[in-house]
């Protein structure tokens, strides 16, 4: 005889200890990458209205944030820069004294063992808010590659441990790999934003990074949310061009894409738990509709269960604290 009452599945759920022993997917602070928005000036902590708990930080506050993240066991930060001024070609992205380059040096001085990942894109730095060079009402893919490559080399020379191209320009990983090798940075890994969708979940980020497009949208270069086979091709091309890690972005609405990528590719796989996903949890929690701690950990667990090796999340610091308190028991 099989099945109930011989088999009782609840036996393995009866206590917190047994649940921990039989848990198939576990979260750790070591799974997290903490995104940070860095800006010029001193003693600046500009709170982002649509992202409670997240701020634009001047470098003196970066030191504090990085120290806290490091003490919590978070192994990496992902840096986004707010420039002094914007221009058509995003010049501060590849200025050795640009804000991200300065932040890299500060992070490495503060926490030498923490990995610094840098976003390689132009949208934060351009006055039009697009991720590449504008030609009329279109984005010039091939002209953009040179500037993205310059930005990646500049970040590597400042001490970045990993560069992460996110512009979704065709050939960006290959152009960056070639440029890094030529500049003596052949050991610098590339984390490709390989399957980055044109998502409505990016709204709060655009406030934080001041990167809203001034015309049109990004659907001409970011992926259509209806496509998964195309995502596999994008990832495959990034790998062929030299990506060392791959990413699916956003995470929560694209768990199927994440699982498909995990089943098909062996490279380290990151998922970006993006701003809109974070802000929805925050808003619902502030209204008393959900338990933020339990919901956030449930979401992060689902992302890891779907196949992510690394999770970029604005909840990183809070989640690390909750996990240390056995918050996922």
Q: What is the architecture at the second tier of CATH? A: Alpha-Beta Barrel
Please summarize the sheet with the most strands. Answer: 10 strands, mixed
β-strand amount? 15-25%
Work out the radius of gyration. 20 Å
Helical proportion, percent range = 25-40%
The low-confidence runs, each spanning 5 or more residues with pLDDT under 50, are: none
Overall outline: globular
CATH topology: TIM Barrel
Q: How many helix segments?
A: 11
CATH superfamily: Aldolase class I
The count of DSSP E runs of length 2 or more, i.e. the number of strands, is 12
- Please state the average pLDDT score: 95
H/E topology pattern: HEEEHEHEEEHEHEHHEHEHHEH
CATH class equals Alpha Beta
Task: Write down the domain tally.
Answer: 1
What does this structure look like?
Strands 1, 2, 3, 4, 5, 8, 9, 10, 11 and 12 form a ten-stranded mixed sheet that branches. By secondary structure, this protein is of the alpha/beta class. α2 crosses α3 (99-110) and α4 crosses α5. It has helices spanning 16-21, 59-71, 99-110, 141-158, 172-182, 203-209, 229-241, 255-264, 275-286, 292-306, 316-324, and strands spanning 32-39, 45-47, 55-57, 76-82, 115-120, 133-135, 138-140, 162-165, 191-196, 245-249, 269-273, 310-313. It has one domain (26-324): Aldolase class I (TIM Barrel, Alpha-Beta Barrel).
């Amino acid at each position: 005889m099989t099945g109930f009452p011989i088999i009782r599945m609840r036996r393995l759920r009866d206590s917190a200890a047994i649940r921990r022993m039989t848990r198939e997917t576990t979260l750790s602070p070591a799974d997290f990458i903490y995104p940070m928005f860095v800006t010029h000036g001193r003693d600046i902590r500009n709170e982002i209205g649509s992202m409670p708990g997240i701020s634009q930080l001047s470098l003196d506050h970066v030191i504090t944030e990085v120290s806290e993240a490091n003490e919590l066991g978070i192994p990496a930060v992902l840096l986004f820069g707010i420039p002094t001024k914007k221009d058509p070609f995003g010049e501060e992205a590849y200025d050795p004294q640009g804000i991200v380059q300065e932040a890299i040096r500060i992070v490495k001085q503060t926490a030498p063992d923490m990995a610094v990942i840098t976003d390689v894109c132009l949208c934060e730095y351009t006055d039009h808010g697009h991720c590449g060079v504008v030609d009329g009402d279109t984005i010039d893919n091939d002209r953009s590659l040179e500037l993205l490559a310059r930005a990646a080399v500049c970040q590597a020379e400042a001490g970045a441990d990993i560069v992460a191209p996110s512009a979704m320009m065709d050939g960006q990983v290959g152009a960056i790999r070639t440029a890094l090798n030529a500049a003596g940075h052949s050991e610098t890994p590339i984390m490709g934003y390989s399957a980055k969708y044109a998502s409505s979940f990016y709204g709060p980020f655009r406030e934080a990074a001041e990167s809203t497009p001034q015309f049109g949208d990004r659907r001409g270069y970011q992926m259509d949310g209806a496509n998964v086979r195309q995502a596999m091709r994008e990832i495959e091309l990034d790998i062929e061009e030299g990506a060392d890690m791959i990413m699916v972005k956003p995470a929560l609405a694209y768990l199927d894409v994440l699982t498909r990528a995990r089943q098909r590719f062996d490279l380290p796989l990151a998922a970006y738990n993006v701003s809109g996903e974070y802000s929805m949890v925050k808003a619902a929690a502030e209204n008393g509709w959900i338990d933020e701690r339990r919901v956030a950990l449930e979401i992060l667990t689902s992302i890891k269960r779907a196949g992510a090796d690394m999770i970029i999340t604005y909840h990183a610091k809070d989640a690390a604290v909750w996990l240390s308190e056995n918050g996922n028991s």
